[in-house]
Amino acid sequence: MGKTLFEKIWEEHAVAETPGGSTLIAIDRVFLHERTGAAALKRMAEMGRTVRDPSRVFAVMDHIVDTRPGRSDGTLMAGGEGFITETRAACQAAGITLFDVNDRDQGIVHVISPEQGIVLPGLTLVAPDSHTCTQGAFGALAWGIGSSEAEHAMVTGTLRMSRPQTMRVRFEGELPFGATAKDMILVLIAAHGAGGGAGHVVEFAGDAVTSLDMEGRMTLCNMATEFSATSGLIAPDGKTFAYLSGRAYAPDSFDDRHWQSLKSDEDATFDQEIVIDASAIAPMVSWGTSPEHTIPVDGAVPHGPDSVHDYIGLPAEAPLAGTPIDAAFIGSCTNSRISDLRRAAGILKGKRIAPSVKKALVVPGSLAVKRQAEAEGLDAIFAAAGFEWRMSGCSLCFYAGGEGFPAGSRVISSTNRNFEGRQGPGIRTHIASPETVAASAIAGAIADPRELMREREAAA
Amino acid sequence: MLRDNVDTDTIIPSREMRSTGRDGLADGLFAPWRYIDADGRIEDPDFVLNCAAYRDTSILAAGANFGCGSSREHAVWALAEWGIRAIIAEGFAPIFHANCIRNFILPVTLKRAAIEALAGEEVTIDLAAQEARSAGKTHAFEIEREAKQMLAQGLDAIDLTLTQAPEIEGWTARDRSARPWVYLGGASA
Ligand code: SF4
Fold it and tell me: Number of folded domains in chain B?
């Protein structure tokens, strides 16, 4: 019987069985950040342990770094500087490569790992960060772990695992005008629940997936964790190798025979299969406090738990479009790459955000993305529209203390989590594509981006 | 706490993670729910862990997909520091589940009806027998053999894995010739 892509990677990395019945899986790459990686490095040092192969461990400062121009080690979050200086010292002691605060390649971990060619098809890559699954877009098995597991991976070169189940999600047909990879993953989670992928590694397939560029594929895989999947991945193809070619840590040439084998065989079977009609996907916006609380932008709020309606301040049956917003955020490992910024800028060009929108931020995913955007003049478009243009980092994708949105704000956000308090105490987050964020910022209320996009197309 | 999808941002908000270490986290445990005013540390008397009867509990009862969201192990460290030894839920987010085992908190998965029957009662969990018991009622649960062993014997996963170092070395030597592009540190790394 044929094998799935996941099974091929799993079997290739299976080092040994343990006496307790789990499998030692070899780990090819470990990536750390200052928020959770520092804890792993600290503990490792306390235990007198060392990194087995420091050349394959990387770290970055992204989570709590200041994103205002002219930044240094200081953070807006009280005590944050300690995380940064401790991480730096620990990386040095451990001999691992660090992308430091103002290093030219600094950025959000899941943005810079592909940019640097650190993730490659067929690899296993782990990081103490739940959105590590983003990197599955390259046909790697990439997943989030805890700090103790990160220490385990660094010290032993392996993790103790029990084998997850397999699931394939096929998006059939062509994505319609105005719909994006973000909307695809939100449709999946809305239809099958925030727990729908639990225990599974999900392979995304189908025409609408292969049609996506690498950045769209990363957006899709990014939110596999919001689906509770162990990870998400996409079989590598010509686009994958073209993207990686020439990147700093990518090999000079690819071993075609090995890489061509990285796909699920025709006769492979999955423990679960889901098929979604991509041609019916519309721009999606979350209405509640779980990513599964998501509906098409022109839909009405469904009946949910009272506590959710209370927190979000929207009654059942209210139309979502037209809900006034106070702030807008474009950034995060979901939607902060150059194509995201281009699409948002395309909508914002020549427009201004509504006066009622008190804070609007655009935070590029990496300093490389920032430079590229500036070379294309996107920064000027954002600034003219009323968005603040920032240095790269996680920024207000999550609230660490310090900088925040005005108390009680309703925020339209290109991020991946709309949990209670995720962007600050009492903040009500609506997640959506960068297009929808841009259109809503202009309208001052949740808005369907397709109208402005049509206007643009007609004018072009 | 019979809610679904309790996320790690709620268990320990990022702003409550004040040092790179594992200590000093219990104070921020469930801060958004536990305090009316988190800065002033003014407690909400209605929150279950603030009730006199449950303040010293070592077992938490929850709904589905407990511990979802961020991978932060601080969520488990905070629970452990507060004194939680076991969590009974309909299901756990995978990273959180693994973090529990590594920190010797027992994750027990049971059906909703069983959890509702146990919640608020005096509960004993017998890991060896794989049973959660309250007055007269017994609920069996499944746990992976290795996780059970590690919890029961307090084993350190890294030490355990290092006993298989020769196998890891052998695998790496073979893999290095099969997939040389994986290795970035030159011949000796
Ligand atoms: S951008 Fe947000 S979701 Fe992504 S790694 Fe940073 S904090 Fe996590």
Answer: 2
Residue B113 and residue B77 in one domain? yes
* One domain, residues B99 and B163: no
Same domain, B105 and B182: no
In tens digits, what is the pLDDT along chain A, a chain of 460 residues?
Answer: 899 999 999 999 999 999 989 999 999 999 999 999 989 999 999 999 999 999 999 999 999 999 999 999 999 988 899 999 999 999 999 999 999 999 999 999 999 999 999 999 999 999 999 999 999 999 999 999 999 999 999 999 999 999 999 999 999 999 999 999 999 999 999 999 999 999 999 999 999 999 999 999 999 999 999 999 999 999 999 999 999 999 999 999 888 889 899 999 999 999 999 999 999 999 999 999 999 999 999 999 999 999 999 999 999 999 999 999 999 999 999 999 999 999 999 999 999 999 999 999 999 999 999 999 999 999 999 999 999 999 999 999 999 888 999 989 999 999 999 999 999 999 999 999 999 999 999 999 999 999 999 998 888 7
Structure tokens at B144: 């992976």
B22 found inside a domain = yes
Same domain, B64 and B126: yes
Nearest CA in chain B to A396: B14
- Does a structural domain hold residue B53? yes
Chain-chain contact of B94 with A20 (C-beta, under 8 angstroms): no
B1 part of a folded domain: no
Whether A401 sits inside 8 A of B15 (CB atoms) is yes
Cβ separation A249–B184 shorter than 8 A: yes
Q: Which of A22, A76, A77, A130 to mutate to test the interface with B (most CBs of B within 10 A)?
A: A130
Task: Determine the structural domain holding residue B172 and report its residue range.
Answer: 156-189
Cα A209 to Cα A95, A238, B16, distances in angstroms: 39, 14, 39
Grouping H, G, I as helix, E, B as strand and the rest as coil, residue B109 is: strand
What structural domains does chain A harbor?
5-161 (3.30.499.10), 165-280 (3.40.1060.10), 285-459 (3.30.499.10)
- Decide if B2 is inside a domain: no
Tokens 């009730």 label which residue? B51
